[in-house]
Write a structure and sequence with these properties.
The chain is mostly beta strands and about 180 residues long. The protein is built from two helices and 13 strands, in the order ββββαβββββββββα.
């Protein structure tokens, strides 16, 4: 696995390095030992899957507040997505900055997200599927979100949004009262 740090501290793109022969290919998707520097003493406790039917649909931008902060790894296993993270950590030099990566099975890449970032994506292909690894358990009472079109962040989505859930469209815009998350 090749790990490339991103400008957002603790975030990285992880590139699987497939080995192939006449039968096809084999690639490691996750390895505690190889990812130990990113993960520290955290362990994967939950694995989730999503399918997004429409190209242009956006899911996100979601996060968990204290005490339910969690690190995530996201990989596209079908189709292609424009995967986005926003740094929401109050003490971070990249506070409110965002980063995006195109994820696909062909690229064999995934993005690692530290605690304290919001995550979402736009499906580039219909029927895109995502696979997520989490170091924390989902706690709905600590869930938060940033609206996908929040001008305080200014995400440059590659396509016009086609479908956004009512829940995600109803997320509040950030204002001066948002001081960030303690991660």
């Amino acid at each position: 696995m090749k790990i490339t740090p991103l400008k957002i501290a603790g975030a990285a793109v992880i590139q699987s390095e497939p080995r192939g022969d006449e039968r096809g290919a084999f690639a490691r998707w996750f390895c505690n030992q190889e990812l130990a520097e990113l993960m520290g003493d955290k362990q994967i406790v939950s694995i989730n899957h999503s399918r997004t039917e429409d190209a242009g649909a956006i899911r996100g931008m979601h996060y968990q507040r204290e005490p339910a902060l969690d690190m995530k790894f996201a990989r596209c296993i079908r189709g292609e997505v424009y995967d986005v993270i926003i740094d929401l950590r109050a003490d971070s030099p990249t506070f409110l900055q965002w980063h995006a990566e195109r994820l696909s099975p062909q690229k064999m890449n995934m993005i690692a997200m530290p605690e304290g970032v919001a995550h979402g994506f736009q499906a580039i292909d219909p029927g895109s599927e995502m696979f997520y690894l989490h170091t924390g358990y989902y706690a709905p009472e600590y869930e938060g979100g940033v609206r996908f079109d929040d001008p305080a962040v200014g995400i440059d989505w590659p396509m016009p949004p086609t479908v956004v859930s009512q829940r995600d469209r109803s997320l509040p815009l950030l204002d001066a009262s948002f001081r960030g998350l303690q991660a």
